[in-house]
Design a protein that fits this description.
alpha+beta; single chain; five-stranded mixed sheet; 1 helix; 5 strands
Length: 81
């Protein structure tokens, strides 16, 4: 995972979130890492990182995207943004 997304992932794992899926979501994400819970906080956006609220129960709640890599979170969880 690209360093800007890796930093967010590590912060989420340290807060107790967990990875529930790793794969791809062509053509938008060559790498998709899905977390079990909502993101615990709003993370500062490093250069090239975009935050998106998806809010679609068929897909996921939100995502951080860098190039063609996505770090996403499911709807269930302890905090909403």
């Amino acid at each position: 995972m690209a360093p800007p997304l890796q930093a967010i992932l590590e912060a989420e794992l340290a807060r107790g979130n967990r990875i529930v899926e790793v794969g791809g979501w062509p053509p938008h994400c060559s790498l998709l890492v899905m977390l079990a819970q909502h993101f615990h906080t709003n993370y500062p956006l490093a250069e090239g990182v975009e935050f998106r609220e998806i809010d679609d129960p068929h897909y996921w709640k939100a995502e951080y995207v860098y190039a063609d890599e996505c770090l996403a979170c499911r709807f269930q969880g302890i905090a909403s943004r």
